[in-house]
Structures are given as structure tokens and as C-alpha cells.
């Protein structure tokens, strides 16, 4: 073997030996560093996987908000609470009390349906003049008893008839019935009677009603009729104004208007044909005219 060959063999052996030593060193290093790398990876925050992104519901607000705004959103949004809040803001305030006045002209009324439509009070015609008794009064008032609604009775005043006989007719019609609103007198025809005579007879009738029932009666009429035939000497009585204008026109000098009949062509469930529609002008109007009529009145 020549010296050159020996030298080349020594060089190869050194290279192989160095490679083996380096490999052993690297392998030992990797083996010893695995626990440390595992601990470091466990301590680092994990990134969300695509499936995690859709694992929670996305709120409508988050869909339309910027990334910065989304980061400020709470983790969950109580959708029902938001709806409730908006509904509460949109709920209108309680409307003024609504009522109707009814006579035999409406025929048989299905009171359950009428009251379910939102009616708060009812006036029933009881009598007219000296002899007429409304044939549906007793039927209507008995049908209303189970419903616990405010009920009043009214008399149609005939200016040409004796006021005392009219009073007796009205009291005969209403005796023994559970009325919870003050009696009302409908004064809208003069029958050719002069204003002074009408006023005298009306005053006698009203005084008799108040004495017999213990309630201050309500006067019902139109603005023009009040100005011509009734007048401000009756202003201490509660008044029920019939006026079919879009907005009520208050007659000059008329005081204490509690109720407004705003339509004579109303339609309600439970009533065939038209019916008069009424409103209480103030929230306290019904309390003003509320009165439990003496059932023993004769």
C-alpha cells in the first residue's frame, strides 16, 4: 500500500468518525429538549379553528359591525330583552274610556262581543216621555250584570210633557236595577215649547231625579240646542255633548263636558246596524259621573 492511499483512507475514516459524533450529539439534544418544547407550546395561546368560529350564534348587530365594534360586543345578546324594550316604548298610553248608548233600536245585543271590543261603559235607554218604557232595557241590564261594566240609564225628555209624570215613568223603569253611573236625560227636541218653559220643566225633572236617586244627573244635548233652549243656568250639571265633527267643537259658555258622543254610525261586534259611540273626555270623567243609584227609588 502506498503512502498516498494510506493518507486517503485516514481522511475518510476521520470524516466518517466526525459525522457519527455530530449525529450522536444532535440526537441527544433533540431527545432532551422535547419536554421543554411541549411545555412551551402548552403555555402559548391557541388560535381559533375555523369550526370554532361558527360554534356560537352570530347576532345581527355583529354582522353589521366593524371588527373593532365586534370586539366590544358582549359575549351573548338577549334578543328577547331587546324586543321587549322596543315594544314597551311603542305601546301607546291608555286611551280615554270608550262607551256606547243603546236603545231598543239596536235589537238584541250580544254583550259579550261588545265588551270584548274594548267598551268601558254603557248607557241604556229606559224611558221616553210620560208613558213609554224601552222594551229592551230590562233585558239589556240583566245581560250586563255578569260583565262588571259601568252602566247607566237615560230618559228621553219630552218638552211638551208634564215633568213629574216623566220622572215617575223613569223611576218606574229603573227601579231595582243595579246602575253604577248617574242617570242621564236626553234633551234635544223642543216640540214648539218656548225656552223658558222648557228650562222650567227640565229643572223640575232634574231635581226630582237627584232627590230620588241620590245622584246628580247628566244632561245630554247638541251644542246649538244647549245654547238656544238650555243655557248656562244648567252649567252645574255634568254635560254629555253630541258632536259628530272630526274634532269636538266646544260651545261657547258650556262647562263641565264629561262625555262626547262623536258618532251615530258606529259599528261594533255584537250589534247589528249602527250604534252611538262615546268617549270620556278626561281620564277622571267616569269617576265624576259614577254613582250607585238607590235601587229603592220610586
Automatic annotation (TrEMBL):
Gene3D superfamilies: Glycosidases. Keywords: Membrane, Transmembrane, Transmembrane helix. Belongs to the glycosyl hydrolase 25 family. This is Lysozyme. GO terms for biological process: carbohydrate catabolic process; cell wall macromolecule catabolic process; peptidoglycan catabolic process. The keyword Membrane applies. The chain crosses the membrane at residues 12-32. InterPro entries: GH, Glyco_hydro_25. One of its GO terms (molecular function) is lysozyme activity. The keyword Transmembrane applies. Residues 48-99 are annotated as: Disordered. It comes from the Bacteria. PROSITE patterns: GLYCOSYL_HYDROL_F25_2 (PS51904). Residues 67-85 have a biased composition (Polar residues). It holds the Pfam family Glyco_hydro_25.
Amino acid at each position: 500500500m502506498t503512502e498516498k492511499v494510506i493518507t486517503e483512507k485516514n481522511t475518510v475514516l476521520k470524516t466518517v468518525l466526525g459525522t457519527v459524533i455530530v449525529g450522536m450529539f444532535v440526537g441527544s439534544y433533540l431527545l432532551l429538549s422535547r419536554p421543554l418544547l411541549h411545555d412551551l407550546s402548552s403555555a402559548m395561546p391557541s388560535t381559533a379553528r375555523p369550526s370554532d368560529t361558527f360554534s356560537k350564534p352570530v347576532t345581527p348587530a355583529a354582522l353589521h359591525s366593524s371588527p373593532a365594534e365586534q370586539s366590544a360586543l358582549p359575549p351573548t345578546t338577549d334578543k328577547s330583552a331587546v324586543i321587549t324594550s322596543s315594544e314597551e316604548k311603542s305601546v301607546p298610553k291608555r286611551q280615554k274610556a270608550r262607551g256606547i248608548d243603546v236603545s231598543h233600536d239596536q235589537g238584541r245585543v250580544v254583550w259579550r262581543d261588545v265588551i270584548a271590543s274594548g267598551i268601558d261603559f254603557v248607557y241604556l235607554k229606559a224611558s221616553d216621555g210620560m208613558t213609554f218604557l224601552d222594551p229592551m232595557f230590562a233585558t239589556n241590564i240583566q245581560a250586563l250584570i255578569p260583565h262588571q261594566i259601568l252602566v247607566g240609564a237615560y230618559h228621553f225628555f219630552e218638552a211638551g210633557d208634564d215633568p213629574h209624570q216623566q220622572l215617575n215613568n223613569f223611576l218606574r223603569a229603573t227601579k231595582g236595577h243595579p246602575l253604577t253611573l248617574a242617570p242621564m236625560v236626553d234633551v234635544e227636541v223642543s216640540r214648539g215649547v218656548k225656552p223658558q218653559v222648557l228650562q222650567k220643566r227640565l229643572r223640575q225633572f232634574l231635581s226630582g231625579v237627584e232627590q230620588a236617586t241620590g245622584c246628580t244627573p247628566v244632561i245630554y244635548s247638541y251644542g246649538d240646542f244647549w245654547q238656544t233652549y238650555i243655557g248656562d243656568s244648567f252649567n252645574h250639571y255634568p254635560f254629555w255633548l253630541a258632536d259628530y265633527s272630526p274634532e269636538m267643537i266646544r260651545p261657547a259658555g258650556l262647562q263641565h263636558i264629561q262625555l262626547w258622543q262623536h258618532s251615530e254610525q258606529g259599528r261594533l261586534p255584537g250589534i247589528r246596524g249602527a250604534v252611538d259611540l262615546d268617549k270620556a273626555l278626561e281620564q277622571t270623567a267616569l269617576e265624576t259621573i259614577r254613582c250607585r243609584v238607590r235601587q229603592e227609588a220610586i
